[in-house]
Automatic annotation (TrEMBL):
<protein>
    <recommendedName>
        <fullName>Histidine ammonia-lyase</fullName>
        <ecNumber>4.3.1.3</ecNumber>
    </recommendedName>
</protein>
<dbReference type="InterPro" id="IPR005921">
    <property type="entry name" value="HutH"/>
</dbReference>
<dbReference type="GO" id="GO:0005737">
    <property type="term" value="C:cytoplasm"/>
</dbReference>
<dbReference type="InterPro" id="IPR022313">
    <property type="entry name" value="Phe/His_NH3-lyase_AS"/>
</dbReference>
<keyword id="KW-0456">Lyase</keyword>
<dbReference type="InterPro" id="IPR001106">
    <property type="entry name" value="Aromatic_Lyase"/>
</dbReference>
<keyword id="KW-0369">Histidine metabolism</keyword>
<dbReference type="GO" id="GO:0019557">
    <property type="term" value="P:L-histidine catabolic process to glutamate and formate"/>
</dbReference>
<dbReference type="GO" id="GO:0019556">
    <property type="term" value="P:L-histidine catabolic process to glutamate and formamide"/>
</dbReference>
<dbReference type="Pfam" id="PF00221">
    <property type="entry name" value="Lyase_aromatic"/>
</dbReference>
<comment type="pathway">
    <text>Amino-acid degradation; L-histidine degradation into L-glutamate; N-formimidoyl-L-glutamate from L-histidine: step 1/3.</text>
</comment>
<comment type="similarity">
    <text>Belongs to the PAL/histidase family.</text>
</comment>
<dbReference type="GO" id="GO:0004397">
    <property type="term" value="F:histidine ammonia-lyase activity"/>
</dbReference>
<dbReference type="InterPro" id="IPR008948">
    <property type="entry name" value="L-Aspartase-like"/>
</dbReference>
<dbReference type="InterPro" id="IPR024083">
    <property type="entry name" value="Fumarase/histidase_N"/>
</dbReference>
Length: 512
């Protein structure tokens, strides 16, 4: 099993994916243990002081004016976690919870939170043993961090609340800890806050979305190339000199991919000569690099924000230079904004893909192909309703593109009077990314059928590899009508499993 070592520096995107999706084990590095111990010594000194210190010897939020006596402080931490574990709704996906736990551990490891070594080590042990606390869909406002989701995880460290074992069995935390040979912790001063006051849920979902979108935008270039080819479009508009006069980096990369994908296409070559009367293709074909490129640039911006957040210690108050200071770094606005921005990206890339697909099905626009690519139009409906499915998804993605981050709602007796709603932005982005993958799968199916119908003209080596991939997987070619849902599901699995980009890479190398 792979082991990710968490030190005082940021975890990488690859580490997050390995822990969240691949079940990698986690350990604390010696630098992290030293930093944790130094910060804890500061908290212990403050706890012994007669002066109240927020998070150490006071209440929380709007109740911060209450000074808590030493004999009540362990109860204070237990009460904080129990009361904040107030989520509701469906369970959040295991990969999201594991990402959230890893990122909270990464902040603990910076030595700015004041938690104890044994608390951080137990959090790492839960990840290594595959024990995943049950976290619910609703509960985070994305300010003071993802409080409720993180509190459900902190509850498990106390040996309380429901968890799932490595094999997915639902049990209670005490039972799961005992089975793994682990003992719950009794939280001390400041530790409750240290465990729940971060942007880790929304950040984990952002990192996973960036990981997925990076490949999906390559798939979008593949499906666009197949559509340009199948609709007898031109590849001349993707020439590098045309991209250079509008120097957006993502546009240049997408255009270069399209050029490489269409190289040596018999279909494109068949209408490249002087007799071709196709002056300009429709926008959905001609402007694919402009849309896909803008999406790439947006993902790059989101990755920059995510990298900064991964390098952050998000907590309040924090230990800095031997003292404890209040701050507002838990506000999720930077993450929330780019989560919303990526939902716009997913919606628009899906929208242009659906428009390319629709052109294949319209006899007036598909340049000689049968209506709806049907075997016997009228008797057969072909791919008519597959496009309906695309359209339904695209419509949903447009609704999901409405930003959550502008919808602040005050809480905590107006102490927390402006919040980011970043958790909500992240939850809808996950649905958006899933929807985009389904739309692209249907475009691939449609374009592949069209290329088969162009025979004896031959597709390019790269697009031909994708057609073969689909056929070998059980996504059928032209023919009489059949049950389409299983074939759509197969195509979708090839997209999300990265088989599409792998098939292309095996012929022309990795796409950019």
């Amino acid at each position: 099993m792979t082991t990710v070592t968490v030190g005082t520096g940021p975890v990488s995107f690859e580490d997050v994916v390995a822990v969240a999706r691949e079940g990698a084990a986690v350990e604390l590095g010696p630098d992290a243990i030293d930093a944790i111990d130094r910060a804890r010594a500061v908290i212990d000194d403050l706890a012994a002081s007669a002066t109240p210190h927020y998070g150490v010897s006071t209440g929380f939020g709007a109740l911060a004016t209450r000074h808590i006596a030493p004999e009540l402080r362990t109860q204070l931490q237990r009460s904080l976690v129990r009361s904040h574990a107030a989520g509701s709704g469906p369970e959040v996906e295991r990969e999201v919870v594991r990402a959230l736990m890893l990122l909270r551990l990464s902040t603990l490891a910076t030595g700015h939170t004041g938690c104890r070594r044994e608390t951080a080590e137990l959090l790492a042990a839960l990840l290594s043993h595959g024990i995943t606390p049950v976290v619910h869909e609703y509960g985070s406002l994305g300010c003071s961090g993802d409080l409720a989701p993180l509190a459900h995880c902190a509850l498990a460290l106390m040996g309380e609340g429901p968890v799932r074992t490595a094999d997915g069995e639902l049990t209670d935390a005490a039972t799961a800890l005992e089975a793994a040979g682990l003992a719950p912790v009794q939280l001390q001063e400041k530790e409750g806050l240290a465990l729940i006051n971060g942007t880790d849920g929304m950040l984990g979902m952002l990192v996973l979305a960036i990981h997925d979108l990076t490949d999906l935008l390559k798939v979008a270039d593949v499906s666009a190339a197949m559509s340009v080819e199948g609709q007898l479009g031109t590849d001349r508009v993707f020439a590098p000199e045309l991209q250079a006069i509008r120097p957006h980096p993502g546009q240049a990369l997408s255009a270069a991919n399209l050029t490489a994908l269409l190289r040596d296409s018999g279909v494109v070559a068949s209408h490249r000569g002087p007799d071709c009367n196709r002056v300009q293709d429709a926008y959905s074909l001609r402007c694919s690099p402009q849309v896909h490129g803008a999406a790439r640039d947006t993902v790059a911006h989101a990755a920059m924000v995510a990298a900064r957040e991964l390098a952050s210690a998000v907590d309040n108050p924090v230990v800095v230079d031997g003292r404890l200071e209040s701050n507002g770094n838990f506000h999720g606005a930077p993450v929330a904004y780019v989560l919303d921005f990526l939902a716009i990206v997913a919606a628009d890339v899906a929208s242009i893909a659906e428009r390319r697909t629709d052109r294949f099905l319209d006899k007036a626009r598909n340049h000689g192909l049968p209506p709806f690519l049907a075997d016997d139009p009228g008797v057969d409906s072909g791919l008519m309703i597959a496009q309906y499915t695309q359209a339904a998804v695209v419509s949903e993605l447009k609704r999901l593109a409405a930003p959550a981050s502008v919808d602040s709602i005050p809480s905590s007796a107006m102490q927390e009077d402006h919040v980011s709603m970043g958790w909500s932005s992240a939850r809808k982005l996950r649905r958006s990314v899933d929807g985009l993958s389904r739309v692209l799968a249907i475009e691939l199916m449609t374009a592949a059928r069209a290329l088969d119908l162009r025979a004896p003209l031959t597709p390019s080596p790269a697009t031909g590899a994708v057609v073969r991939l689909l056929r070998d997987a059980g996504v059928g070619g032209p023919g009489t009508d059949r049950f389409l849902a299983p074939e759509i599901d197969l195509a979708h699995q090839l997209v999300t499993g990265r088989a599409v980009t792998a098939a292309v890479a095996s012929v022309i190398g990795e796409l950019q």
